[in-house]
Amino acid sequence: MQQPTQDHWDSAMIEKYNYSGPRYTSYPTALEFDTGFTEPDLLAAIENSETNRLSLYLHIPFCAKLCYYCGCNKIITRHAHKAEQYLAYLATEIIARAPLFKDYTVTQMHWGGGTPTFLQPEQILQLTTLLKTHFNFAEQGEFSIEVDPREIALEMLDTLKQAGFNRISVGVQDFNKEVQKAVNREQDEQFIFDLIARAKALGFVSTNVDLIYGLPLQTPESFAKTIARTIELSPDRLSVFNYAHLPSRFAAQRKIKEDDLPSARAKLAMLQQTIDALTQAGYQYIGMDHFAKPEDELAVLQREGKLHRNFQGYTTQPECDLLGLGVSSISQIGTCYAQNQKDIQAYYQSIDASRQALWQGCSLSRDDEIRRQVIKQLICHFELDMAKVDDALGIDFEDYFAEDLKLLQTFLDDRLVSIQDRKISINPTGRLLIRNICMCFDVYFRQKARQQQFSRVI
């Protein structure tokens, strides 16, 4: 698959399409969830699901410090007893939910937050023991956890290995000290190198590093140094996110001075430099914000046309159900999505009342299922064979998507997309705008007023 390069960079074209839109970790997106979706709907979806593979997501909401850019659902505290209380409620939810999945095998698990390593080593071991007692875990799978390098001892990696984790994701964001101070996330650079080195020595099969471009005081020159340092760090995967400044939605972002934010042009330059530097260093551009070494399973499966996508982003797992556990977590079961209560007290009250915390969700219509497949194919593989879609879904693509193809015409005119022999191909420059291209097939997004709910694509 051809990688975007300097030759494919068209700033004017990218600016033309740089408007707000979904990230398509689901279709329909979470904006379509509503509280009319109830526990019987979820139980019916589990009953009717056609897979016996399960991915678990656990949300650990606690952080010791507030990062000003963060839009995650988190609780800032240094009080360990709050985690004890939360884990007790989480255990109740796990024990109640697990019997519904007794015929499933867990092949993937991810702990996010917040900061999962806010927990003490013994709490992590107790929680993983509880999970393995109540769910059927595969001997081999993808078991990952997010790590904050400011709030972890190197020895914690030994605990994570003992608990069964084989992948870690480290939040770095930027190596520049001034940028770190501006977002209240100062960290030790050498410790990050020591952390990744220890993970590799212990046999973790994959390390991921998160970076963010568009933060206050960043410049193309300063971020290029961060990228160069990250290449020296040599993680297996990289996520390089676009900072979305939405202070009206996320109170912590009001602490960031808007005058300190880089311009749209500077952000584009950072993205261009990042893609050039990482691809020249041998990383495969997976899409949107993600890069992986060519031998990484994520990159291999993309080349084989077998990549998937869910609420955790790009994933190696074939069609499997996703069960979210903990406050605000989202499940994807069969043809439904279900989200737990977002507020911690509401989560506790719901667990007390019914041993589950369902808040909202949606059941997919036949049209939703068809569009979900099309969007996933485009966002994972940047190509689509209409004939294969016809055969798999029992439709006539051009007839079914007549209105959508009209919207796609502007991308065809701008040579970002091509259609030949009933095959849609996203050209290298178009890959940078894949979210926009997927919007053509999103019937909900056509209500233009909703754009403000999303971040810009770049």
Beta strands, count: 19
Summing up helix and strand content along with how strands pair, one would put the structural category as alpha/beta
User: Helicity level, as a percent range?
Assistant: 25-40%
Low-confidence stretches: none
Q: What value does the Rg take, in angstroms? A: 22 Å
Looking at the structure, what is the overall shape? globular
Strand order of the largest sheet: 9-10-8-7-6-5-4-1-13
* Terminus-to-terminus distance: 22 Å
Sheet having the most strands: 9 strands, mixed
| Number of distinct helices | 17
Strand content: 15-25%
Question: What's the mean pLDDT score?
Answer: 93
Outline the structure in words.
The protein is an alpha/beta fold and 458 residues long. It is built from 17 helices and 19 strands. Strands 9-10-8-7-6-5-4-1-13 form a nine-stranded mixed sheet, with helices on both faces. A three-stranded antiparallel sheet has the order 14-15-16, with helices on one face. Helix 3 (80-97) packs parallel to helix 4 (121-134), helix 4 (121-134) runs parallel beside helix 5 (156-163) and helix 8 runs parallel beside helix 9.
Offer a few descriptive terms.
458 residues, alpha/beta, 9-stranded mixed sheet, 3-stranded antiparallel sheet, 17 helices, 38% helix, globular
Itemize the secondary structure elements and their pairings.
Elements: H1 11-16, H2 39-48, E1 53-60, E2 62-63, E3 75-76, H3 80-97, E4 105-113, H4 121-134, E5 137-147, H5 156-163, E6 167-173, H6 177-182, H7 189-202, E7 206-213, H8 220-233, E8 237-242, H9 264-280, E9 284-287, E10 290-292, H10 297-303, E11 308-310, E12 313-315, E13 321-325, E14 330-333, E15 336-340, H11 344-354, E16 358-363, H12 366-381, E17 383-385, H13 386-393, H14 397-400, H15 402-413, E18 417-420, E19 423-426, H16 428-431, H17 434-439
Parallel strand pairs: 1-4, 1-13, 2-3, 4-5, 5-6, 6-7, 7-8
Antiparallel strand pairs: 8-10, 9-10, 11-12, 14-15, 15-16, 17-19, 18-19
Helix pairs in contact: 3-4, 4-5, 8-9
